[in-house]
Specification:
The complex is a heterodimer of chains A (340) and B (372).
Chain A lengths: L8 E3 H15 L3 E5 L15 H5 L4 E3 L4 H13 L3 E8 L7 H8 L2 H4 L9 E6 L14 H5 L5 E3 L4 H13 L4 E6 L15 E3 L13 E4 L4 E5 L2 H14 L5 E5 L2 E3 L3 H11 L2 E8 L4 H13 L8 E5 L8 H7 L3 H13 L1
Parallel strand pairs in A: 2-3, 2-4, 4-5, 5-7, 6-7, 10-11, 10-13, 13-14
Antiparallel strand pairs in A: 1-8, 6-12, 9-11
Chain B lengths: L1 E5 L9 E7 L6 E2 L4 E7 L2 E6 L4 E6 L6 E3 L3 E7 L23 H10 L17 H14 L14 H16 L2 E9 L1 H13 L6 H15 L6 E2 L4 E2 L6 E3 L1 E3 L2 E3 L2 E2 L7 H16 L13 E5 L18 E15 L2 E15 L5 H16 L6
Parallel strand pairs in B: 12-16, 16-17
Antiparallel strand pairs in B: 1-8, 2-4, 2-7, 3-6, 4-5, 6-8, 9-18, 10-11, 12-15, 13-14, 17-18
């Protein structure tokens, strides 16, 4: 469990914008660019208030041209700046993927280690609010498949701030995904877990370190992002039935904290992976493989997964809710893992 | 059509049996009357045959598992055997087929627990780690606390049957053992004479069974049986003869023993003993004894306390026959003497009538001519 050192509460979006602001003040090379990140404050609030505070030199609204401004960020990074570029929805990666995975992710390698690309791409992920197939995906598994980028996905305000500062200070390119549902936005379905204690002074959360968000003995639920909240809700329900679920928040997909997965499975003997990303060829498969490779002799049951089915995300609210894992389906999957 | 294959009813007394082995892999076509499984109730194993043509689709009871008589042990999909049925992969033999979790395997290795002795509590009977730890703890409670883990031998169905029946007898009956010495000198001579006369060697056992059968005619109360309704006197003299078999004991029954001569008894006892040792006795052949004889005369045992197999109320134990000094007409002479130990259920028979019965048995043995 992360040690909390303050009683001050922030939403995740405010924690992110505070982290960016503090790094802008600390390091003159840090700046932000992206669509609607200035005057609007980022459509999910990640850069709220920054333009007024730091001005258009550091907070730059861009045209709708992801290839252009992400390419510009890569250029700035290799030139010694530490840019933060916001890809408004991860779903839009298609138009700028060449800049991301052929340039940002490979320049360090192809330059023989001579050139660093110290940049952060922030992007909103996730569904659950009826934004349909092109604005609701998580897709982190697809990026994690490609070498050369670190990937962090905070689930709490505390982790959001610490991981943002760690990402900005990291000399490698980092993809920083925030789920719309963890941001604590007023217009989304209220989520009490999206508000939490955040120390005011800058701090980092190590990239590549998972966090046990809840201790348990009967099964391990490994997940990330908003599904951490859902898993914690499920764990509360399971506890009333005498089932103690341990909830492991990966926080980073690259590097993946394989030891944390193995350690928890060695403790509980059972693994359930909950993943809002598509089921096949993704995070759930990777985590389960890790458990089998590292902790096979400690398994009491075949690892199970609950993930988004391999279909485009429906616009219809009932259909979308049917597809998304939730506290009830997670609890049911946990029960099945123990009793079925 | 689905048809359940039921655990056959082999015994009125024992409700449970053990499935010993399947001869058919699930998914395999079978023909009616094809041998498909072997089951064991108490000490007797019986073969199970397919009730119809079809395909064995499911095994409900794994080898070694306990099942009640009349309960389904497998499922047959009835229909003509399907030659095109998918080839069946044979499970590795020599291992329990119950699923075992990797963690359970590891802990079983660490704690030296034999997985075939562990019952699985997981989905589909899967053995999980907690099951192995429970089994290890149970084992540890019985064995010495320190030192390397003792090898645990699974309880065979026969072991369980012997344990259950004899413990029940000790718990319920008021067992009392009387011992008396018989002078078998003349009997030894008679046995030698008979061996020369028959096409086979005669032995003590048929003479003792014969003597008991005749004595029971005169003392029918010894064969009475305790029931809560009252004492039941059996209609015939059926004598069980204990036979030691590999790691066990089996007691086939000689029906109407008092109506059979020594030669017939000799043949029948030899046949039953041989089939007991080779596991070919049927359950009815071990049921319904009204009195039993057990002998340890082949070893250096003189007297012992045989245990009752309820509802029998009496059992005679035979010690070794041995040349010993005896006093006859005031002189010490060598005689072949033998101690007989009669255990009775004192709830049914009192000491005096039991002693009178034992007297009668000895009198018959000491006058072998009366056994003819």
């Amino acid at each position: 469990m992360t040690t909390q050192t303050t009683d001050r509460l922030l939403t995740t979006s405010k924690a992110i914008s505070e982290a960016i602001g503090q790094e802008i003040e600390r390091d003159e090379r840090v700046f932000v660019m992206g669509e609607d990140i200035g005057i609007y404050g980022g459509i999910f609030g990640a850069t709220e208030g920054l333009l007024a505070k730091y001005g258009p030199e550091r907070i730059m609204d861009t045209p709708i041209s992801e290839t252009g401004f992400i390419g510009a960020a890569v250029g700035a990074a290799v030139s010694g700046m530490r840019p933060i570029a916001e890809l408004m929805f991860v779903d839009f990666f298609g138009v700028c993927m060449d800049q991301i995975y052929n340039h940002m992710a490979k320049i360090h390698y192809e330059s023989g280690g001579n050139i660093s690309v110290p940049m952060v791409i922030t992007s909103a992920i996730g569904g659950g609010y009826g934004d349909a197939a092109q604005h609701s995906q998580t897709l982190y598994g697809m990026f994690a498949h490609l070498p050369g980028m670190k990937i962090v996905i905070p689930s709490t305000p505390y982790d959001a701030k610490g991981l943002m500062i760690a990402a900005i200070r990291d000399d490698n390119p980092v993809l920083y995904f925030f789920h719309k549902g963890v941001m604590g936005l007023g217009w989304m379905t209220p989520n009490p877990r999206a508000t939490g204690p955040v120390p005011e002074a800058p701090y980092t959360v190590p990239i590549g370190k998972a966090d046990v968000k809840r201790d348990g003995r009967d099964l391990t639920i490994v997940t990330v992002s908003l599904m951490v909240h859902r898993a914690l809700d499920a764990a509360d329900a399971l506890a009333t039935e005498g089932i103690e679920a341990e909830v492991v928040d990966l926080r980073s997909l690259v590097p993946l904290d394989r030891e944390a997965i193995a350690e928890s499975v060695r403790k509980t003997r059972r693994l359930l992976v909950v993943d809002e990303d598509y089921k096949s060829f993704g995070m759930s498969g990777e985590v389960i493989t890790t458990a089998i490779e590292e902790a096979f002799d400690y398994l009491d049951a075949p690892p199970a997964r609950l993930a988004f089915p391999d279909v485009p995300i429906p616009y219809s609210r009932p259909l979308e809710q049917f597809c998304l894992p939730n506290a009830d389906t997670i609890a049911a999957a946990a029960r099945a893992l123990i009793n079925a | 059509m689905r048809q359940e294959i039921l655990m056959p009813t082999l015994s009125d007394e024992a409700e449970e049996g053990v499935l010993v082995t399947w001869f058919v892999v699930p998914g395999t076509p079978v023909r009616a009357d094809q041998l498909i499984a072997e089951v064991q109730v108490e000490k007797v194993s019986e073969e199970v045959y397919a009730p119809a043509d079809g395909r064995l689709t499911e095994i409900l009871v794994q080898p070694g598992e306990v099942v009640r008589q009349g309960e389904p042990i497998g499922v047959l999909e009835v229909g003509a055997p399907d030659a095109t049925a998918a080839p069946v992969t044979r499970a590795p033999t020599g291992r329990s087929t119950a699923p075992v979790s990797p963690s359970a395997r590891r802990v079983a290795r660490e704690l030296a627990v034999d997985l075939s002795t562990v019952t699985g509590s997981g989905p589909g009977g899967r053995i999980v780690e907690a099951d192995v730890r429970a089994a290890a703890e149970q084992g540890a409670g019985q064995g010495p606390a320190a030192g390397p883990a003792a090898a645990v031998e699974p309880l065979s169905p026969m072991r369980r049957a012997v344990a259950t029946r004899l413990s029940a007898g000790l718990r319920e009956a008021a067992q009392l053992t009387l011992t008396a010495e018989a002078d078998a000198t003349d009997l030894v001579a008679e046995i030698a004479r008979l061996s020369g006369q028959w096409d086979r060697r005669a032995g003590y056992i048929e003479t003792i069974v014969r003597a008991c059968a005749l004595a029971l005619r005169d003392h029918p109360r010894v064969a009475r049986q305790w029931t809560e309704e009252g004492l039941v006197t059996p209609q015939s003299i059926d004598i069980g003869v204990a036979v030691a078999v590999e790691d066990g004991l089996i007691v086939p029954v000689i029906r109407h023993a008092d109506a059979k001569g020594l030669r017939e008894l000799s043949r029948e006892i030899a046949d039953l003993a041989e089939r007991a040792r080779s596991g070919k006795l049927t359950t009815p052949e071990t049921r319904g004894a009204t009195f039993s004889v057990t002998s340890v005369g082949a070893h250096r045992v003189d007297a012992f306390t045989p245990l009752l197999d309820l509802p029998q109320a009496a059992i005679l134990g035979v010690g070794r026959a041995r040349l010993r000094p005896a006093v006859i007409d005031g002189r010490i002479v060598p005689r072949t003497l033998m101690v007989l130990s009669l255990t009775i259920d004192h709830r049914v028979i009192d000491g005096e009538p039991a002693a009178a019965f034992l007297d009668r048995v000895i009198a018959l043995l000491e006058n072998p001519g009366s056994l003819a």
